[in-house]
Amino acid sequence: MVKYILKRLFQSLFTVLLVVTIVFLLLRLMPTDYYFTEDELMKLPQEVLNDRLQAAGLLDPPLVQLGRFYRDLFTKFDLGTSRRVQANQPVVKVIAGKFGISMQMGLIALAISIVLGVVIGVLQARFKDGVLDHIGTGYTVFVNAVPHLVTYSLVLAFGARVLGLPSMYSARKLPLSMYLPIFCLSIGSTAYYMLWTRRYMVDELNKDYIRLAKLKGLSTRKVMFRHVLKNAFVPLVQYLPYSILLTVGGSLLVERFFSVPGMGPLLTDSIGRYDTNLVQALVMLYATMGILGVFLGDLLMALVDPRISLTGKGDVR
Amino acid sequence: MKKLLSLALCLTMLLSMVIVSTAGAAEIKDFDTYEVTANEVETWCLQYSQAARDLNVLCNLVDGLLTNNAAGDLVPNAAKSYESEDGGKTWTFTLNDNMTWVDVNGEIKAEVTSEDWLTGLEWVLNYAKNDAANTSMPKQMIVGATEYYDYTKALAESDGPEAAQALTYKDKFAELVGISAPDAKTVVYTCIGQLPYFPSVATYNCLYPAPTAQIAEIGVEGYKSVLPETMWYSGPYTVTSFISGNEKILTKNPNYWNDAGVKRFDTVTIHMVESQDVAYQLFQTGELDHVTLSESTLKTISDNASHEFHNNLVEARPTKYSYVVHLNYDKKNEDGTDDINWNYAVANKNFRLSLLYGIDWTTRLARINSINPLSCENYIYTGNNLCFTSDGTDYTQLVRNELGIDYDREVYNRYDADKTAEYKAKAIEELTALGVNFPVEMVLWYKADNSTEYENDLVLQQAVSDTLGDDYVKIVLKSYITNPTTEVRNPRLFSIYFSGWGADFADPINFLGQEIWDDNAYFTTTYAHFDELDPENPAFTDVVNTVTEFTEMVNAADANTTDIDQRYADFAKAEAFFLNNALEIPCYYMIQWELTCVNNYSKVYSMYGMQAYRYVNWETNDQIYTTAEAAELAAK
Amino acid sequence: MAKNTQKKMPKPEHEKTVQELETPVPDLSVDYSTVDHEPKKERPMGREHLRSRDVMPEKQLFEFAEYKPQEAERTGYSNYSYWKSVWQNFLKKRSAVVMSLVFLALFLFTFIAPAISKYDVNSLRVDANLAFISPNGEYWFGTDNLGRDYWSQVWYATRASIILAVSVSFGQIILGVIIGLVWGYVRKLDRFFTELYNLVDNVPVIIYMTLIAMMLDKSMLTMGIAMILFNWLGTARNVRNLVLMYRDREYNLASRCLGTKLGRILFRNIFPYLISMIILRLALAIPGTIAYETTLTYLGLMDVSMPSLGILLRNSRNFFLDYPYILIFPAIIVSIITITFYLVGNAFSDACDPRNHL
Fold first, then answer.
1. With contacts defined as CB-CB under 8 Å, which chain A residues touch B127?
2. B535-583: per-residue pLDDT in tens?
3. What contacts 24+ positions apart, CB below 8 Å, involve C84-93?
4. Domains within chain B, CATH numbers bracketed
5. Cα of B631 to nearest chain C Cα, Å
6. pLDDT at C172 over 90
């Protein structure tokens, strides 16, 4: 088992580095004009632009730059400084200042949606084809049918105008100004958890052993909690670490909408402003979290369900 | 749970209502303003910043030598007086006595002395410290600046950046660069020639001070990556809270040297919002004290007489940018060959004049200002309020006199059907003889993801088609992806290009100098490309001669640095010549509408530099100004 | 039905097998001295009985059945046809049938709408005086902020979005299925595809999309191809796992031992198990693509000159509080498309599952 874990960790490290290398080289394929703002391109002579690129070491061949990147990374754990998003600040610092807020809101929203989603999903499966089941399915369809952009606009307009909630995040109005973004964050994931809980539960309920258990005279409640829920939970549990770790990334749309100073818009911002060091660091972070999340999910699943053996074949689910 | 939630919501609503209803005092103490998220501050290092997004905040944190007042005049700030005894070659600035550097808590760290200006300029010109940012104006104007920049660059390349970073103003800088500090309160600049407009450059951050003592303490890298909590302040405000992408709180500097001289807010909060429309929603809920209106919101409010803000619409003052349609005289096709059809057409004076007089800009201007579109129209290339003659006449008035137009800003329209028909007929006749095919295609580019720009271009396309006719010229819209320089301007794929120019200093040469036949003329080398034309080709002879003549006029006017009135008069003649030949087509100023609690005529107003966002001496009213009140204030 | 069977089983091959079976003519003559002459005699049961077989002649234990081609065909023939059953099962779900008709009607209408519209989408006149006219007899969906007829734009955009969504979805599913089949079946390539999968999956797709938009262009074609190139992952992984599940089932093992060709195994034995999943993914990919396109538009990765539902929705954000109809029309259409595909996809995927065919 330990050997397996070490092997997986080593493989993951390799994948992360490969991902970063590819993104690094892709970024270096672009014309160097992208490093400047429109204003700078307009007012600075070409030689000055070149001087600035040279000072930042951006005119060296891509492989030399890659070598320097890895040297700094492994010797000093230095990912470089941001060029534009927060000029001259170490990217680690830029990210450190942002991920907390994203994670905080993400975790709250995740907790809400898991509790709500699983409870409603279980009830839906328990009273299949009942009123609640139809309402729940209707909600799921609605959430998936209406583009998120539209839903968020409606929430924003309604929350701010009718309920008088602050329409943008503010550190000084804390619990209050988090309501709307958290609400928006949980709309989608609640639907997700509802859908899958119901689905797994219904699948499980139709299995032979459940029929046997019922025939043996076990109470419905006992069947539901002892057998069905436990088994239906296994596939859900597998994605839990992944979802938790990815709250670090924040949500692009929600955070942009409510001016949340989190990680969500950082990635598009940094690409948009061509802040290569920041992009690389973010890619590394996302890749690590993604791979780690899958890996922890596997471990957790093996812990929860004794039938699952990790050392068997197949690493991708 | 639900009950609790609804209770909480009720409480919130009550609370917000209470806040709204209890506000009563006339002046706003805590001002709430906004900026769109794309304009978040990128650097807090004043010398390093080149962008308005940073400088709009930074100008409140450190005081430069001079600033502007609400009328647009240069006024003393850190320097209590300035003078030149040799007609503008050397400039002496005398500093105030009681200025201090404070930290974010307002505690005094050091005195502000003249050596801070030396440190500041050394920083800007040191290649290893400032990566060449903000060097262009000092290099053009100050003796030895170029040499010192090249020296540091060579040193950084031969001995490594650390060697160049170790330099201070006491080393090589002192012997090369034309700046000196005879005593702790005097700064003297030596210019390359007689530069009467040099003091206006002193409002700009390339001539700002840097805290010498702090740099000695935290080092070069430390100052480069300075943040609000670590930086030293000498201006009216300190930044007590900075959450990137969310908000900045500027708090009154308790130890500000000029506390008695200026009126300040207790705090200014700058909220970062996703878009103009979100800002409008925040304004409606009372979270902001002013908002600039987008086209659609403005239309909604102005069309609806019972709208809550219908009587609160206020026209803003023009921004410093003068927008011009640049004509490309050396357009290429996408395969790299010359687009002869367009190049021949644009080289024809009658064709250009038909474009100048033949487009009714009203609909296009309504995209900026739907209530008063014609008030935005730009007839003169140089911006209004840039510089004044000794009797206080605006320079642009001189140009208007030369052009012989005297107009009422609200109703004058350059479009002239008779002139259009005349020029069009002549152009068709002359160009057909040269083998030009009609309709002449004008290629205009927009950014692929920018729907506002695309819609603007559609409106212009319609306007051109309405007045000039599809059989004569036709605007062809094409999209670039991210970078117009690489994709459009360098390969010269455009026929016409919109661009705004905001002056760097107060002299017409800053505008006209960009259009002359010269390698350093920005607009010529970027857009017009007169210099690429073959004078032997009969189709181009006329335009080459025109530009040559214009260049001579500008250079002659610029040579005169002693008699300012004469200088401006000569520039006005050159500019009128430029416009009468329609070498470029001036199109508009940014004059938008807003809802505001601020008297726009109390704000710093400046057509150059970086002082426009200083939150000092602002008159505010906790009630939103009505249109009538704002008009009264404007009349004053 | 019978015609079909004949087509699939060409005559010569059929005859050849019969001949082969008939070549070793069995010797049916019996050595009567070894035969038990007392059939009605009581015999010991169990072990004793078995032992009694030892004395039986081998020829009596195994008899060759007489081969009759007609009989063989009769037992082999079944009334079952896969697609027919799928169709019958699908038709049983009334709501799904209605929904698919709704979608078809919507799609056909995107072609009819411009024809009955009063304005041609390609020559709409920009006129600020006509901006934001609410829906009326002249402008059925009102006008937009530039005073252009909204009806013709909405339907044009709907058609463009549906075509984009359908082609992208088909593209990504086909790519995903092919990669998934190869990935699952060819053991040697498993490592390669797993790494490729990890590479693409672990970088936020938005990076790839932005870089592509910056390097190439933002046209619908480029973005569509990019979407295909980065969205095959889910399908491929799903297909691969199913292939892994079924490839070593006994009947496939048997098939392989009998020398059945790879293609035939993949398509006759394994593919039917995938169809249900593929259909469901396809159906969900179509609304998914439209939603994705909306997000890309919001991020500025689509060219605004080409009307699509995503672009209309993005533009409407600025006006919808004052002019709700600007948002409502495209939003309703997007919702209809999503709901129809959701329901139809589920119904069709159930119908495709052979386990539901009995």
1. 51, 55
2. 888 889 999 999 999 999 999 999 888 888 999 999 999 999 999 999 9
3. C85/C351, C85/C354, C85/C357, C86/C348, C86/C351, C86/C352, C86/C357, C87/C351, C89/C350, C89/C351, C89/C356, C89/C357, C90/C347, C90/C348, C90/C351, C93/C347, C93/C350, C93/C351
4. 2-32+253-318+596-635 (no CATH), 43-227 (3.90.76.10), 322-589 (3.10.105.10)
5. 26
6. yes
CA distances from A35 to A50, A62, A152, C211 (A): 11, 15, 33, 14
Q: Which residues pair with B496 in a beta bridge?
A: B327
Residues of A in contact with C187 (CB under 8 A): none
Q: Residue by residue, what is the 3-state secondary structure of C131-160?
A: CCCCCCCCCCCCECCCCCEHHHHHHHHHHH
Which residue, among B286, B291, B218, has the nearest Cα to B45 in the 3D structure? B218
C77 φ/ψ sector (left φ>0, alpha ψ -120 to 50, else beta)? beta
Return residues 365-404 of B near C (CB < 8 Å): 366-367, 370
Out of C126, C145, C317, the one facing B462 most closely (by C-beta) is: C126
Q: A19: nearest CA in chain C?
A: C199
Give the chain C residue whose CA is nearest to the CA of B448.
C303
Q: What is the mean pLDDT of residues A205-233?
A: 82
Q: Where do we find the tokens 């970024």?
A: A27
Given an 8 Å threshold on Cβ–Cβ distance, is C300 in contact with B449?
yes
Distance separating alpha carbons of residues C319 and B275, to the nearest angstrom: 13
For the entire predicted model, the pTM comes to 0.82
Residues of A in contact with C244 (CB under 8 A): 314
pLDDT for the residue numbered B313? 93
Say yes or no: domain C83-356 is CATH 1.10.3720.10: yes
B117 CA to chain C: closest CA distance, Å? 42
Establish if C309 touches chain B: CB-CB under 8 angstroms: no
Query: Using a CB-CB distance cutoff of 8 angstroms, which residues of chain C are in contact with residue B461?
Result: 126
How far is Cα of residue C209 from the mean position of the Cα atoms in its chain?
26
Residue B396 to residue B357: CA distance in whole angstroms: 20
Domain boundaries, chain C: 2-79, 83-356
8 Å CB contact of C211 and A27: yes
Would you call A176 an interface residue with chain B, using a CB distance cutoff of 8 Å?
yes
From chain C, the residues in CB contact with A27 under 8 A are 211
Element (H, E) at A220: helix A220-222
Instruction: Give yes or no for B455 touching C (CB within 8 A).
Output: yes
Asked if B224 and A260 come within 8 Å (Cβ–Cβ), the reply is: no
Q: b/e string for B296-321 if b means 16 or more Cβ within 10 A?
A: bbbbbbbeeeeeebeebbbbbbbbbb
Lowest mean pLDDT among B71-75, B465-469, C262-266: C262-266
Domains of chain A, each with CATH number or no CATH: 97-274 (1.10.3720.10)
Q: Which residue of C has its CA nearest to B366?
A: C128
Report the gap between the CA of C230 and the closest CA in chain A (Å): 15
Task: Pull the structure tokens for residue B488.
Answer: 């459009």
How far apart are the C-alpha atoms of B107 and A68, rounded to whole Å? 42
Q: Report the C-alpha gap between C126 and C123 in whole angstroms.
A: 9
Query: What is the predicted pLDDT for the residue at C320?
Result: 78
